[in-house]
Amino acid sequence: MVSVITPVHNSEKFIRQCVESVQNQFYKEWEHILVDDCSEDRSVEIIQEYARKDPRIRLIQLDQNSGAGVARNKGIEEAKGTYIAFLDSDDQWYPEKLEKQITFMQNNDYHFSFTSYDTIDEKGNKLGQLFKARQRVTYNTALFKNPIGCLTAMYDVNFFGKQYMPEIRKRQDYALWLKLLKKADGYGLQEVLSSYRHTSNSISSGKIGLLKYEWKIYREIEGLSFLQSSFYLLSAVFIKLRTYIK
Q1: How far apart are CA 149 and CA 114, in angstroms?
Q2: Whole-angstrom Cα distance, residue 48 to residue 79?
């Protein structure tokens, strides 16, 4: 079984598309754990509607607003699956996503995988932007830039055990990938199997503004020296600026 972890906060606008993209998977052995981080809209009501009809859907509610990292960790803690996958509440999967990714992992004895993904706008229209998965990612190569879309990642609990994200507000997924990559390389399935939604919030947050969290990961979580952290952060800035200019 695959445990799908979704943090939720004021997601009423897109949560139906998210849940239904999991329900529409060709692969049926899954549980969908949605962890509500004190939403103030109808998110909980909508999730409860689906959970009443489908026992594979589980709602967990946090007592206080704590951020996506805490919500994801609560989902991981409650997960029962052999594999753990992640899907944010405004994103969605193609119907063949789980089936193809699990086959890819099992046929090749991979324990950590990810896929290519595309982007959509708030109405679900394709934006024409494609993020192609690298064939292979190691810990050292991942230090230069987060190469893995959270909505595409999946890891094998039997191999890694349950691995959690650091409880920082942003970039906690990147920190988890680095932790996993210390034990095994990650492998990318080249097919586009997920859609990342650009919303007004995600666009306004900006990539450069996230660099302080990457610095925190390098220095405090990974324990890299000041010089090493500076080198990787400057490399990340260069990569982001080059992408932005293009």
Answers
A1: 7
A2: 18
Rounded Cα distance, 145 and 31, in Å = 31
Burial of 130 (C-beta count, 10 Å sphere; 0-12/13-18/19+): exposed
What is the token pair recorded at 140?
């050292």
The span from the CA of 164 to the CA of 76, in Å, is: 7
Res 220 pLDDT > 70: yes
Spell out the residues 6+ positions from residue 55 whose beta carbon is closer than 8 angstroms to its own: none
Convert the pLDDT of each residue in 58-117 to its tens digit: 999 999 988 899 999 999 999 999 999 999 999 999 999 999 999 999 999 999 999 999
What does DSSP assign to residue 221? I
Q: Kindly give, in sequence order, each residue whose CB lies less than 8 Å from that of residue 63, ignoring residues fewer than 6 positions away.
A: 38
Paired with 136 in beta bridges are 187
Identify which of 12, 5, 78 has the alpha carbon closest to the alpha carbon of residue 47: 12
Which pTM value belongs to this model? Answer: 0.92
Identity of the residue numbered 38: C
